[in-house]
Design a protein that fits this description.
31% strand; alpha+beta
Length: 171
């Protein structure tokens, strides 16, 4: 038997459910279409037990969500986490206000940026890091209609160029 072979095989195996494993629950794809993303932050969420159980089933929606800073605390509103199906009278409200856990200096930095005209706090992704629920939030500036059309046109041009290059390579 080779020396240390068992350790190498264990190290090569992918992590499943470990402390650092990341499992995506929901993504707000429309946010990247509607906003220019300036800065992103990772925040923890204060949740109840039935909310976590509902999230473990992969049920959530970030499309109408937004963040705000109120009395020195960061809050997440409009995020839809449906009621837990096996929950009892202790079930949570689906669209309640949830507290985000950020460092004080991050909250101050975000609040200064939000005071600028046209800035908003948008949730981009909701995910598990180990057993903890995290949300990726972004300070964003809204796009105009012509910005959206231009971005779609650039994406389509890049797709066509890629298609032409792959056809050229195959000849």
């Amino acid at each position: 038997m080779a020396k240390g072979s068992g350790k190498k095989a264990a190290a090569a195996a992918p992590k499943t459910g470990g402390k650092d494993s990341i499992t995506t629950i929901a993504r707000n794809r429309k946010a990247r279409h509607d906003y220019h993303i300036e800065d992103t932050y990772e925040a923890g969420l204060v949740l109840t037990g039935t909310e976590v159980k509902s999230l473990r089933e992969g049920r959530a929606s970030l499309t109408d969500g937004f963040g705000l800073i109120f009395q020195g605390e960061a809050w997440l509103e409009g995020v839809y986490i449906p009621e837990y199906l096996q929950g009892t009278w202790t079930n949570h409200a689906a669209r309640r206000r949830r507290k985000m856990l950020l460092h004080r200096d991050e909250i101050l930095k975000i609040s200064h940026k939000l005071k600028e005209s046209g800035r908003t706090l948008v949730p981009l992704e909701l995910y598990f890091v180990g057993s903890r629920v995290k949300v990726e939030i972004a300070v964003a500036r809204g796009k105009k209609d012509w910005d959206k059309r231009q971005a779609l046109r650039e994406k389509q041009d890049a797709r066509e160029a890629q298609r032409a290059m792959s056809l050229r390579r195959n000849m």
